[in-house]
Amino acid sequence: MSVQTSYEKVSKIQSEAMFHRAKQVIPGGVSANIKYFAPHPIIMKSAEGSQLVDVDGNTYIDYLLCYGALITGHGHQQVVKATTDYMHKIGTTIFGTPHELEVTMADKLTALYPGIDMVRYTNSGLEATLLAIRMATAYTGKKKIGKFEGHYHGGYNHVLVSVNPDQKESGNEEEPNIVPESKGIPAHELKQTIVLPFNNIEATERLLRKHAHELAAIIMEPVQGGFIPAEQDFIVRLRELTSELDILLIFDEVKTGFRVHLGGAQSVYQIEPDLTALGKVLGGGFPVGAVGGKREIMMISAPTSDSDIFSVGGASRAKNDVVFHSGTYNGHPIVLAAGLETILLLEQDGCMEDLFMKTDMLRKKLEKLYHTYEIPMQTVGMGSIFNIVLTNHSIRNYRDMWQADTNLRHKIDIELLNLGVYIKPLNRYSMSIVHSEENINQTVIAHEKAIKNVLNSRGRG
To answer: What Pfam families does the entry give (predicted)?
Structure first.
């Protein structure tokens, strides 16, 4: 069998058997579609620091890190201690009422993020972007939103369009088609979203001016997919346009929050969005999300005594004047304890600088290696996240990725899984503060072996 579809060198017998069991009780054998890859995902049983161990006993250096959430690595002692100590201190796992850490974390986020005056908590990044869009439509009174081609904001109808559209379906690059990414999205909902071309300000401006009367907000990843940065001129002009046209600007910083700067990409670009969605790193390894933004926008979610939809039989006359937002686990105390300890670690002198230095070290070593084998390759990213793109073509947006040799990249990634480097094939790399120089050197050695194995299978050895 080819390296593209099998694990040839390392036993995955237990992983395969457990996956087949899972398929009997879980659709597709996975709890999230993104966790699947052929021939079957690898089932893990333990983790520590920068490493994962699967059910067959194989060890991996982990660069997926729960899709970037684990910036302190697996089971960091201080995060674990802070979490368990706090649970024992309060005597419960959750209050179901307001509590002190909600205020503590909100104070921290308003200090770190230029565009955040007030905060509401959710349980995921998806919920955060969903709430941000609801706030924007309520605040502006307009019903449509704009999103950029190639950007992902969660698996719900409004935004699950044109994330990874086929070339034949994508349409004109200056006015992309609206391409649904799932079954079950009603046609009338597709009409509520306008797809924009990323890093093309001239075409974006034309679309914004054309639809300004109906656009409540533009939602964007300031770093597309966590690795393609917005160009400075593009994002500055976008902020100017949205302000001029009374369109709110939403930064989805679920991937970039804390990973490119403690204050997110907005601190790097020195741009203040109207609303910001956070997740991943914010929870220290637990499920979390948050929406932050300008006070006058955030206050439309503030409840009043007669806006409670659950006061059965009671007055709820003002409910149509308030953006409803609720969730049993919003602001979970144990989650916020883990998140606060994570931020405390990242704030230590030199921590972020060291993380970025090691990320840059890995990027440079990998680029040098691939060039040695005359493979067109570049690393694209910002801060502690990047991707390996097998092309010399400039990467500025989703469509530029069509120039990359994803078939070769996929084969190398499968080989890396056999060689003890864990990355979901074709995914971005995330670094943690516990990845060591030894990890980096081992990773480069594994890449060289993977390249040789793939080239040998092609008869180029």
So the answer is: Aminotran_3 (PF00202)
Residue 438's Cβ-side half-sphere holds a number of Cα atoms within 13 Å equal to 3
**Which residue positions in the chain have pLDDT lower than 50?**
1-5, 461
Tokens of residue 225, six digits: 């997919």
Q: Which of 280, 294, 358, 411 is catalytic?
A: 280
Distances (CA, A) of 408 to 4, 380, 388: 9, 17, 11
- Whether residue 143 lies inside any domain: the answer is yes
Q: Which residue among 296, 312, 346 closes a domain?
A: 346
The residue from 296, 320, 346 where one domain ends is 346
Tokens of 418: 């056999």
Q: Exposure of 379 by Cβ count < 10 A (0-12 exposed, 13-18 middle, 19+ buried)? A: buried
Q: Which pLDDT tens digit goes with each residue over 323-339? A: 999 999 999 999 999 99
The one catalytic residue in 252, 274, 400, 413 is 252
Say how far apart CA 443 and CA 40 lie, in whole Å.
Answer: 23
Q: How far apart are CA 241 and CA 247, in angstroms?
A: 8
pLDDT at 457: 86
* CA–CA gap between residue 398 and residue 103 (Å, rounded): 39
In this predicted structure, what is the pLDDT of residue 3?
Answer: 34
Instruction: Give the range of the structural domain holding residue 368, as residue numbers without chain letter.
Output: 13-75+349-457
For residue 7, is it within any domain? no
In this structure, the answer to whether residues 225 and 316 fall within a common structural domain is yes
Q: How many domains does the chain have?
A: 2
Report the first-to-last Cα separation within the chain, whole angstroms. Answer: 19
Please tell me the predicted confidence (pLDDT) of residue 4.
41
- Report d(CA 21, CA 244) in Å as an integer: 56
Same domain membership, residue 235 and residue 138? yes
280 assigned to active site: yes
Strands (E), 43-113: 44-48, 51-54, 59-62
Active site residue 319: no
Residues 326, 359, single domain; the answer is: no
Secondary element (H or E) of residue 386: strand 385-389
Residue 416 lies in a domain: yes
State residue 7's pLDDT score: 56
Residues 215 and 335 in one domain: yes
Active site residue 252: yes
The structure's pTM equals 0.95
Q: What is the pLDDT of residue 409?
A: 98
Shared domain for 327 and 451, answered yes or no, is: no
164 plus 196 within the same structural domain: yes
pLDDT digits (tens, 9 = 90+) for 281-292: 999 999 999 999
Q: Which one is catalytic: 63, 121, 152, 370?
A: 152
